[in-house]
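User: Some background: our group keeps a shared notebook of sequences we're curious about, and every so often someone picks one and asks for a predicted structure to add to the entry. Today it's my turn. The entry only has the sequence so far, pasted here. Could you supply the structure so I can complete it?
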Amino acid sequence: MAKIDVAAAPERSGCRYPAPFDVPCRARAWKSLGDAAGLTQFGVNLCTLPPGAWSSQRHWHEREDEFVYVLTGELVLVTDAGEEILRAGDCAGFKAGTRDGHCLRNRGDLVATFLAIGSRDAADSGSYSDIDLRFTPQGFTRKDGTPY
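Assistant: Of course. Here's the predicted structure to add to the notebook entry:
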């Protein structure tokens, strides 16, 4: 496949986090450009964050690398080091296994868009830095392993 019809790409919104962790991420939306291209080794998502929305809870992956590239708007990158503004043309990467939780938050007045690119490892798991939540291939658990 060559050119991707972005308008026809699979679109999703919201999140699967258990309550109350889902609240700041409910308004996020994304188009699965990697799926539209038939990619299997890495994913590419065109993400949209309206004002007030978060990309995710602050998390890190054990087996997957992640990369984000801001296309429009202004986002706040939150990591263990603190907060940093990302604007159109800025990017950030997150190496698998590095326990530095990260997320993007739209604190501005305009919709922001970014590309999120990551490996597709079905055995990936990880943790959320600020809340009692982990993800595994089987689903969400508390950090002690108790399922939600």
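Suggested note for the entry: The longest helix spans residues 33-36. Helices lie at 33-36.
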